[in-house]
Amino acid sequence: MSPFKGKTGFKRILNASGYSLDGMRAAFTGEAAFRQLVLLNVILIPLSFMLNVSRVERALLIAVCLLALIVELLNSAIEAVVDRISLDLHPLSKNAKDMGSAAQFVVLTMIAVVWAVILL
């Protein structure tokens, strides 16, 4: 058990919420890609409510948009850890960063496909 895992109950939930907000703030201020995805979500999510689609389709349109934010947060976390370990060029570091980027590419493709399938 980690010595950093001392809080339980409601105090743990409050602490975790603060850490989550810190992470969102760090991503928004330090990652241009995250800001771009937030802008995309600000456009697409309200648009989903203006479309004549079922509730399930609307939920899917919104879910894929939010998934892109989740993947970008994880991608940024991977990049931060790799850079924390070493800024030296290394094939494993490149692979880790490239795989995170590939995950984001897959999600962006999924957004395009889901929106196209539902709207066309």
From TrEMBL:
CDD domains: DAGK_IM (cd14264). One of its GO terms (molecular function) is ATP binding. It is a multi-pass membrane protein. ATP binds at residues 12, 19, 31, 79, 97-98. Its EC number is 2.7.1.107. One of its GO terms (biological process) is phosphatidic acid biosynthetic process. The chain crosses the membrane at residues 33-53, 60-82, 102-119. Mn(2+), Zn(2+), Cd(2+) and Co(2+) support activity to lesser extents. It comes from the Bacteria. The keyword Transmembrane helix applies. Its main location: membrane. A divalent metal cation binds at residues 31, 79. Belongs to the bacterial diacylglycerol kinase family. PANTHER family: DIACYLGLYCEROL KINASE (PTHR34299:SF1). Catalyzes the ATP-dependent phosphorylation of sn-l,2-diacylglycerol (DAG) to phosphatidic acid. Involved in the recycling of diacylglycerol produced as a by-product during membrane-derived oligosaccharide (MDO) biosynthesis. This is Diacylglycerol kinase. It comes from Pseudomonas psychrophila. The lineage of its organism: Bacteria, Pseudomonadati, Pseudomonadota, Gammaproteobacteria, Pseudomonadales.
